[in-house]
Amino acid sequence: MLEKTLSIIKPDGVSRNLVGSVITRVEAAGLKILAMKMIHMTQEQAKGFYKVHEGKPFYESVTGFMSSGACVVMVLQGEDGIQRYRTLMGATDHKKADPGTIRHDFATDIEKNVVHGSDSPANAEYEINYFFNALEMVNE
Questions:
Q1: What is the pLDDT of residues 83-105, one digit of tens each?
Q2: For residue 115, what are the β-bridge partners?
């Protein structure tokens, strides 16, 4: 089934000039980029994006980190797009990620793990709509 998912190249990935490397891997995995832009979230915007995690121990840390620098947000599409991108990203903890995954190859710690991806169709819809409107996406 063709699915859309949100991808974020996090501030650590942008600051370390990994944007091109991530995009190359996305395209090599057969995922199509339908939309892409660079943003710099405020802490309030990051809190809105991560509101499902409000109250969890890492909430303040992750929203602080995500608002610390520029991010590249993308809408990706492909067959089983959500799971395909999650497999490409690797485990959240880069030490547990499979070799060849983005996080295994580039992450420096569990928070600075270079990329974010939606984990379900419902979250993908929410996350995509958080950053993009219909005019910003190619519909193919």
A1: 999 999 999 999 999 999 999 99
A2: 9
State percent of the chain over pLDDT 70. Answer: 99
Q: Is 40 a catalytic residue?
A: no
CA pair distance 43, 51, nearest whole angstrom: 12
Place of tokens 């121990």: 57
User: Domains of the chain, with CATH numbers?
Assistant: 2-136 (3.30.70.141)
The C-alpha atoms of residue 25 and residue 121 are separated, in whole angstroms, by: 22
Three-state secondary structure of the chain = CEEEEEEEECHHHHHCCCHHHHHHHHHHCCCEEEEEEEECCCHHHHHHHCHHHCCCCCHHHHHHHHCCCCEEEEEEEEECHHHHHHHHHCCCCHHHCCCCCHHHHHCCCCCCCCEEECCCHHHHHHHHHHHCCHHHCCCC
Q: Which of 40, 53, 94, 116 is catalytic?
A: 116
**pTM > 0.85:** yes
